[in-house]
Amino acid sequence: MARTVLPGQPGSPGSGFGRLLWIDATSNGVDHSSSAGARLHGVPAVGAQAEVEHEERRLREALEAAAVQLDALARATTDRAGPDIGAIFEAQAIFARDPGIIDPALAAVRAGATADEAIDRVAAEQAEILAGVEDAYFRERAADLRDVGRRVLDRLAGRTRPDLHHPDGTPAVVAADDLDPSTVAGLRPELVTGVALVAGAPNGHAAIVARALGIPLVLGLGGALHVGLDGRLVAIDGSAGRLVVDPDTADRAEPATDDSVAPKGGTQDPADGRAPHRELPLGIRIEANVGSVAEAEQAARAGADGIGLVRTELIFLGRTVAPGINEQRAVYRRILAAMDGRPVVFRTLDIGGDKPAGFETGELESNPALGVRGVRLGLRKPEVLETQLRALLEAAAGGELRVMLPMVATLDEVRAGRAALGRAADAALAAGAAIATEVRFGVMIEVPAAALMADALAPEVDFFSIGTNDLVQYTLAADRTNPALAELATPFQPAVLRLIATVCRAAAVHERPVGVCGEAAADPTAAAIFAGLGVTELSVGPRAVAAIRDAVACFDPETVRAVAAETLTATTSDEVRQIAARGLEGMAPISASG
Ligand code: PEP
Ligand code: MG
């Protein structure tokens, strides 16, 4: 067949090759009305003996059906992809027949739970125990157990949820209209060589999760990507943002450097793979945004000065029950250990918006981006927020904890968040646990109300971190996941820059540091303007650390300050870009990046 190139947008770097596997977006988890979490809230507990027996039967049948399905999957994948891949599904089939899972689930049914509720709870609890084990093998099995739980839940609900992996175990490029982040989080990088989306946006969380997993992703392919391509051979290039259907040999060649985390400028220290420390102009620190232990390790290798944002919700996504304190503490400890003393800022759960979680939201919101997300959810679910805060305090025992709240809009929320932190510390101490000896408490500035009130917030926090992804979205009233609004939704909008300037001025009065952890921090031109306005920390994806460090190294303090001041007089985004292009001309990496 003729080679065809479908142009899209880069979502997550790297390249891959395989057969296209089309996923019907109506049954891949995007439709949250069918989530187990929602159903659990709506089903009354089962009491009568006949109902108990009915639920027991449903549970046994669903477990056995899932086990049989997994046996078949294990055989098929062993034949086609080798024993290592087949073993994944063999292990899952064993879980589905394990009395250690079946017995407590049946006991839960006898105690009044539905079959759905019982397997959901037991799989989550057992997975949590595995996740807390030191041995990496057992920790990895926790994800398998959760997969099994989801599979059984699907059987119980009669959902014919398509497998996100080829049944024969051959590596696939998964394609769909769109995928939610929890679905992307459930992809197995060893079986999925790439993701191609009709829609999507680079700042949407599906793309952010794909970057965290190192899965190449191309988005915005439009109608050229469709179900008719299911089964065709494709090559995906997440760096260039394109999908090649029926590729030739050259398309399949591995790219030399585009997904490498190594600094390009020859500044890497060969001894430990970490860039030697360089003082940057204006005292700027380059930090990393991470969503997993693996990404924290990558950030350390890339020479990040710290982690400016741990998106803790990425650890929670795709779960029907929130991870417990032991599992959370273990993950947070590993992230701190990966950074080996360099500062790490943990953001409390930012669930909601385009990051729904099955275990939290029973109610469907007509406008989730403006709904109960971030700190709003945490304050309504104090047990979830305080468990997380306690896990963080204990993970950082004897050292420093930096923690910040997402989606803050008011001073009341800041005070309530601080009070929750105090209660979490009291609970830990009352239980005899050791906790962090120093706590730095910050807030994200991503709602215009918070930016405008920064002078009131500053005295009550230790630092600000500006989330430009959301600040742009809420300032321009432009959905960050809608590619049609990309022109409008840019950090170069004067309204956004004026808000950032307001935050920096308030922070300076109270001597509080300001960081930017939105995707814009990785854009050298935007970074120069932010630095000129007074931002001192730029937190970017681990793969962007080296490039932005190189760019910042060329900043001339007087010039970036003058350019930033001039952008505040601009009235259009074009004018801002022109001022920046003119003023920053000559700073090598900036003029190269446009
Ligand atoms: C942001 O909004 O800029 C941010 C960093 O948070 P997230 O992208 O996770 O919403
Ligand atoms: Mg945000």
Characterise this structure.
This protein has 594 residues and is α/β, with parallel strands linked by helices. It is built from 24 helices and 16 strands. The protein has an 8-stranded mixed beta sheet with strand order 1-8-7-3-4-5-6-2. Strands 9-10-11-12-13-14-15-16 form an 8-stranded parallel β-barrel, surrounded by 7 helices. β4, α7 and β5 form a beta-alpha-beta unit. The two termini are 38 Å apart. About 7% of the residues have low confidence. The structure holds phosphoenolpyruvate and magnesium ion (MG).
Structure described in brief:
The chain is of the alpha/beta class and 594 residues long. It has 24 helices and 16 strands.
Largest sheet: 8 strands, mixed
Strand content: 5-15%
Radius of gyration: 24 Å
Would you count the extended β strands for me?
Answer: 16
Ranges where pLDDT stays below 50 over 5 or more residues in a row are: 26-46, 255-276
Summed over residues and divided by their number, the pLDDT gives a mean of 85
The percent of residues in helical segments reads 40-55%
Shape: globular
Q: What's the assembly state of these chains?
A: single chain
**Largest sheet: spatial strand order:** 1-8-7-3-4-5-6-2
Distance between the termini: 38 Å
Going by helix content, strand content and strand pairing, the class is alpha/beta
Hetero groups in this structure are: phosphoenolpyruvate, magnesium ion
Count of helix runs: 24
Layout of helices and strands:
Blueprint: E1 4-7, E2 9-12, E3 15-22, H1 36-42, H2 49-81, H3 83-96, H4 99-110, H5 115-131, H6 136-157, E4 172-176, H7 181-185, E5 192-197, H8 205-213, E6 217-219, E7 233-237, E8 242-245, H9 249-252, E9 285-290, H10 293-301, E10 307-311, H11 313-316, H12 325-339, E11 344-347, H13 375-380, H14 382-395, E12 400-405, H15 411-430, E13 438-445, H16 448-452, H17 454-457, E14 463-466, H18 468-476, H19 494-509, E15 514-516, H20 524-533, E16 537-540, H21 545-553, H22 557-567, H23 573-584, H24 588-593
Helix pairs in contact: 2-3, 2-4, 2-6, 3-6, 4-5, 5-6, 10-12, 12-14, 14-15, 20-22, 22-23
The structure holds phosphoenolpyruvate (PEP) and magnesium ion (MG).
